């Protein structure tokens, strides 16, 4: 599922940002351009972090930026953005964030398979380090796809 959902156009490496809010806005651009989310989806992600804290910081210097489907998700989508330098999101245990995965789903079930695939990749420290070190979008995508085959 992940293999069909993500291509090199969904990957941005070495994004420079001012702060976590800027990082969310910029990492959302690809999903906005594809029509997977509306601008209000981006604003909702930021508002929820302001209200409840960095709920989508998963660990291992990774944020899975998302919000509820009814806040402007129009189709299943995912993009990957590495940050250079890494950015503080306010997570005591997992800052600074090196990778933002921006994610949209139109309901609570459509994304379960892709999330399962993603979880297996993100739990492997060696794969994560390889993703963080990727110099090209093609290398990043290749690492993701090869990790699914392992």
UniProtKB/TrEMBL annotation:
Keyword flag Metal-binding: no
GO CC, any one term: cytoplasm
One GO MF term: kinase activity
Protein location: Cytoplasm
InterPro entries with a match to the protein in the record: Ascorbate-PTS_EIIA_comp, PTrfase/Anion_transptr, PTS_EIIA_type-2_dom
Residue ranges annotated for the PTS EIIA type-2 domain, each copy included: 4-147
Keywords in alphabetical order: Cytoplasm, Kinase, Phosphoprotein, Phosphotransferase system, Transferase, Transport
Keyword Phosphoprotein among UniProt keywords: yes
Gene Ontology terms describing biological process: phosphoenolpyruvate-dependent sugar phosphotransferase system
Task of the protein: The phosphoenolpyruvate-dependent sugar phosphotransferase system (sugar PTS), a major carbohydrate active transport system, catalyzes the phosphorylation of incoming sugar substrates concomitantly with their translocation across the cell membrane. The enzyme II UlaABC PTS system is involved in ascorbate transport.
Entry protein name: Ascorbate-specific PTS system EIIA component
